[in-house]
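User: Predict the complex with zinc ion.
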Amino acid sequence: MSNPVILANEFYNHLNKDKKENGALTINIIEEAIISFGGQITYEQLDIGCDGKIEAIVDISIPKEPKIDSFSIIINNFYKDDEANRKRLLAHELSHLLLHLDIPSEAKSTENNKITLKFEDSIMSRGTNLEKEVEADLFAEHFILPNNILKLLLSERKYIKDGGFIDFDNMSKEEKIHKNSLRARAIKLGYVK
Ligand SMILES: [Zn+2]
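Assistant: Here is the predicted structure with zinc ion placed in the model:
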C-alpha cells in the first residue's frame, strides 16, 4: 500500500512541474489532471448523504497488471458552486481510484476481460470503510496543498495580520480550502499555539 501523503506530494509536484505555483492547486488544475488521466467528471443529484462516487472500467487481461481503461467521478450537485468542497471531493475520489479499487479474485473469468469497479462515498460507507476514508482524506488534503507549500503560505506576509496572527479567513478565501482544515494543519505544524 502506497503512503497517501507521499503519493499526494508526488502528484502535486507533477502537476506543478511547469506552473511553479506556490499555493493550493486550483480547481482547474485538478479537473484538467483528472481528464488527462482518462477520467470524466459529472455533477448529478445523488442521494442525500452521498457526496460522490467513482466508477472505473478496468482491463484485467493481464491479471497481475490491471489497467484502468476509463473512469468517472460523480459529485453531488449540491457542491457544484462550492469550490473548496469540489476540490476536496475530486481529490478524495481520485484517492479511492489510486488506492482502494481492489480487483476481486473472482473477476478473472469475465468475457471481455473488463470489469467495472465502484466506490461510493456516503454516510454509510464512511462507517464501514473508515480506514480507507481517513486515507482518502489525507491524500486529498496533501494533494491539494502539500505541507511544504502550506508552510510557505503560513509565513507569507499577505496572510499575517497585525499582531502576527494568521489570517485564516483570507487564506481560506484565496486558496479555496476550508478554514477548519487550514487551521487544524497549521496547529499540527506548530504555527498556532
Ligand atoms: Zn471516500
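The pocket of zinc ion is lined by residues 92, 96, 121, 133, 136 (CB under 6 Å).
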